UniProtKB/TrEMBL annotation:
Keyword Metal-binding: yes
Keyword Iron among record annotations: yes
One Pfam entry name: 2OG-FeII_Oxy
InterPro entries linked to this entry: DIOX_N, IPNS-like_FE2OG_OXY, IPNS-like_sf, Iron_ascorbate_oxido_reductase, Oxoglu/Fe-dep_dioxygenase_dom
Organism lineage: Eukaryota, Haptista, Haptophyta, Prymnesiophyceae, Isochrysidales
Organism for this UniProt entry: Emiliania huxleyi (Coccolithophore)
Gene3D superfamilies hit by this protein: B-lactam Antibiotic, Isopenicillin N Synthase, Chain
Source domain of life: Eukaryota
Residues covered by the Fe2OG dioxygenase domain: 135-242
Cross-referenced SUPFAM superfamilies: Clavaminate synthase-like
Region (Disordered): 55-79, 291-311
GO terms assigned for molecular function: metal ion binding; oxidoreductase activity
UniProtKB keywords: Iron, Metal-binding, Oxidoreductase
Family membership: Belongs to the iron/ascorbate-dependent oxidoreductase family.
Name of the molecule in the record: Fe2OG dioxygenase domain-containing protein
């Protein structure tokens, strides 16, 4: 598979819902910094809440300077396994918009899982039954202010989880690296659609966990953000990391042999048994540890010739 990126339009997520969530996100990020800082995430909140620019780890372990983004993490307490305090009164609208968006994106994810199950030679419900009964999923609202072309809003990385789905408003910047020659391709992630009943388009990305579950059949693709436009880019990002307790080795049916009906079955992933939650936690630790090791070293190489320049 050349790339783990694709587009999805789902009737489970109407345009009016997405526009409402984007309105709430843009409104939050437009507030004064001192007000946003009152809602910072911490260990006590399960890291739900606001992270200012430079306040968290970089996506790319090769980025020496803090990446040019601020974010707000919303997680459903029941799926994240712990309790969370009710949102502050001034965040009630943001919380309500994120909650509805989260629920709708879970439904959209089920459609993707059915398609992936069929593509891997399994029953349509196979992945949902094995790894998606109590999924760990979160919504991340991200704002990228304009940067110079010599900077990166978010450095090159692959997502450590299973599936990322996103759309955005304003600016530009999402770039995907082509496997064949290393060139960076611009990807339009603007929410599209027409009217309250229409469905927006999401850019979807299969991550490291998907590559492991599929035995490498699905690629986890490097990508980055370079918002060199004149306006802020605000993105709605839905991260789905499957059931934390589910084993991250799924039987995958190989193509061929009796029309696929009696194909050989192998165990995807490595021989070391991990749950999905353990795998994602280890990948996050690697990302944070790699950044710490490089903090006094060289910064990430930047393809200064533009989006199509190899690196």
């Amino acid at each position: 598979m050349e790339s783990g990126f694709f587009r999805l339009s789902s009737a489970a997520v109407p345009c009016s819902l997405v526009e409402g969530a984007l309105d709430a996100a843009c409104g939050f990020f437009a507030r004064p910094l001192e007000e946003k800082l009152r809602h910072c995430g911490s260990a006590a909140t399960g890291w739900r809440g606001y992270t200012p620019m430079g306040g968290g780890h970089n996506c790319s372990p090769a980025s020496r300077q803090p990446e040019r983004k601020e974010s707000y993490y919303w997680g459903e307490p029941d799926t994240d396994g712990d309790a969370a305090a009710p949102p502050a009164a001034e965040l009630a609208a943001l919380d309500a918009a994120a909650r509805v968006f989260h629920a709708s994106m879970l439904e959209a994810t089920r459609a993707v899982l059915r398609g992936l199950s069929l593509a891997m030679g399994m029953a349509p419900s196979a992945l949902e039954e094995r790894v998606f009964t109590a999924p760990s999923a979160k919504v991340l609202l991200v704002a990228y202010d304009p940067v110079e072309r010599s900077e990166l809003s978010c450095g090159s990385h692959t997502d450590c989880g299973f599936l990322t789905m996103l759309c955005s408003r304003g600016g530009r910047g999402l770039q995907v690296r082509r496997r064949a020659d290393g060139t960076w391709l611009d990807v339009d992630s603007a929410a599209a659609g027409g009217g309250a009943a229409a469905s927006p388009t999401f850019v979807c990305n299969l991550g490291d966990l998907a590559a492991r579950l599929s035995g490498g059949r699905y690629a986890s693709t490097p990508h980055r953000v370079l918002n060199d436009s004149a306006e802020r880019r605000v993105a709605l990002v839905f991260f789905n990391n499957l059931d934390e307790s589910a084993p991250c080795d799924v039987a995958v049916q190989e193509p061929g042999g009796g029309g696929g009906a009696a194909a050989a079955v192998r165990e995807a992933g490595s021989k070391r048994r991990l749950t999905c939650g353990q795998y994602v936690a280890e990948r996050l630790a690697e990302m944070r540890g790699g950044f710490a090791e490089r903090a006094n070293g060289e910064s990430e190489e930047f393809a200064g010739e533009g989006a199509g320049a190899p690196r």
